[in-house]
Amino acid sequence: MKFLKRGRREGRVRARRVFLPLVLISLLVSSASIARSARSSDPTAVGRSVQKTPCQDGFHIAYEWTDPRGALQKIDISISRSELDASEQALGISIGEFREFAIESEAKIRQEEGLSALDIARQIVERSSDPDWCQVSKDPTSDFNIIMRTNSTGRPESDAEIEKILRTNRQKWEASQKKIYTRLEARLKEYAGEHGMEITPRGIAVNYKSLVRTNVARLRPLAEEFKRTCGSSKKRLLEAVLSFVQNIPYLKTLPVTDGKYSAGVAVPLRVLVDDAGDCDSKAVLFASLWLNLCNYRTILIRVPEHMLVGVAVPFVEGATVDLHSTRYVLLELSCGLKLLPGEVTQYAADFIRSQNLKYQIVN
Asked: Of 23, 112, 128, 198, whose CA is between 20 and 30 Å from 218?
């Protein structure tokens, strides 16, 4: 709290700038504390080649890899730079812009509810024994601060009165936070949703369902390539798409890049262009691609520090999980191994068996 003092012939005038806390939801991230992880050695990349050729409006990429059954697979795709940019713009929140939106939203809600800093302070002063000796005005530098001017002439107990007003003001402000929180939270959730994110009790996270669905159309040309090379067999398509995504080398994605928070998830086209991604980025890539090829229910499954995919297909045996009377075959996308549908690591199996998992249906 800062004090601005000025003398006046008829007595002592004290002006105080009062600072009040805002209702803000923390991003729970610090870009300064994040370092890029090095590309890890990935056994799935052995016997694999990728040729990326820049073209007029993007990239042409030719993939060759060996699937778990030892068959050589080949896929060629073209990725538009404009589509890549559009998909990345649709995911993530600028930390600075989000804070600005939150501040503006809170100020607007308070104005609409009659709970601005100035409204609250004036109500308190008007109820004091002599409202004329104390005047409050808005701080021109902030919607959340006030300036209090008092004339203590002939008021030996003025300091005690001032402290009482300030104390009451803080109490009323804190009580008002509870009143506006629901409306503010709704506005922040809407803003996050427009950027492919969602607000959870733990902070801001990726809305995986939205991310998968918005990228289905962008991966349709790649899905057509798989249909061309694999035919109509759903089982063959599943194995081919799984091995394709498995063979993309692992690279941890930064939660914050250039001041934009995306919770460490890269969009599918970025994973393809960079030929790298972590487990949830590769899971989103698989799900978005698979939904072009099959209408069976698909879920993303999160266990501690890892993500898998589950597909409700009747033509594959192996490791499964039953959720609400639906049987899902488990798929490992990023474990450093060449695994068929229904084959999972012991790490994932232990968590699945103990039901230490969260899941989200994406189609």
From this structure: 198
In the chain the domains, ranked by start, together with CATH numbers, are: 2-28+96-194 (no CATH), 34-92+201-361 (3.10.620)
Q: What ranges in the chain are assigned the alpha helix state H? A: 81-89, 95-113, 117-126, 158-193, 208-216, 220-230, 234-246, 268-274, 279-290, 346-353
**Alpha-carbon gap, residue 161 to 271, rounded angstroms:** 63
- Residue 17: name the closest of 146, 143, 202 by CA: 146
pTM over cut 0.70: yes
3-state DSSP helix/strand/coil % of the chain, to nearest 5: 40, 25, 35
Task: Give 339's DSSP letter.
Answer: -
What is the rounded distance in angstroms from the CA atom of residue 112 to the CA atom of residue 248? Answer: 52
DSSP, collapsed to helix, strand or coil, labels residue 212 as helix
Of 28-42, 105-119, 198-212, 260-274, the poorest mean pLDDT is in: 28-42
Burial pattern 261-277, b for ≥16 Cβ within 10 A else e, equals bbbbbbbbbbbbbebbb
Compute the radius of gyration of the chain from its Cα atoms: 29
3-state secondary structure (DSSP) of residue 16 = strand
Q: Reply yes or no on whether the pLDDT at 209 is more than 90.
A: yes
**Which DSSP state fits 158?**
H
Helix 95-113 vs helix 158-193: crossing angle, to nearest 10: 120
Amino acid residing at 318: G
What are the angstrom distances between the C-alpha of 198 and each of 49, 276, 304? Answer: 37, 25, 20
- Cα 250–Cα 363–Cα 94 angle in degrees, nearest 5: 55
Q: Which of 145-154, 284-293, 341-350 has the lowest mean pLDDT?
A: 145-154
Of 24, 18, 43, 25, nearest to 169 by C-alpha is 18
Q: 211: closest CA among 273, 312, 302, 283?
A: 283
SS3 label, residue 269: helix
Length of the chain counted residue by residue? 363
